[in-house]
# Entry
Amino acid sequence: MDILPDSTPHVLEIWADFACFARPEMKVERYSYPCPTPSAARGVFEAVYFKPQFYWQVTRIEILARPSLIALRRNEVKDKANVASIQRWMSAKAPVEPIWADADAGLLGTDMKGRTQRQTMALRNPRFRISAVITPRPNHASQRRAFDEQFVRRASQGKCFQQPCLGCREFVAFFRHVASPEQEAAPYPFSQDLGLMLYDVFDLRRANDPYAPPMVSLFRARVDNGVLEVPPFDSEKVLKPGPQERRAG
# Structure
């Protein structure tokens, strides 16, 4: 098994039938970016290998197939589960009352809201090559080599903690480990200024802290010849809320 030197990115090629990385400015109808956001790419790596002692820092996203959009209508529930209700279900203090995706609220009760249909502009037959490095958390830098070895072993054998997805859970993705990226095909020649793109919805420095609130970060994204270079999370290029905004949230 090849052992990567420090800071050498791990590379995965991922593909699926569909993908949707919704643009935040399209609030109601889902309209996909032509490539994954850094948070979606991080989720693919975490599906293969994750430990609370480190976080994945995505460095590069390559588009391998021409971006092609397809219009889909998807059923979505109108309501979300209540945390207090879930806790009562877990402790067996109340019977489980599921939210039916295709229910009639008049027949099944007021707590079961039924579904709504929304338009989705999804990517069809997407394929990407994503590079990311393992960033150990404080006091765990000495384990970096072991983390790298275990990821390579798992990814090269096709193992994953859960099946990766591309944007939506129903858009199941497949992956393969890329041991020699320099021998792979070049990205698709596609260029576009994507404007402000979602970077992540958590502070990666505290992502495993149960008391850390969500924190949205953005960056100015541009795809050049099929390549999106992702700045480090600590970079000034990543726009994060200030201390006052975090406290207010």
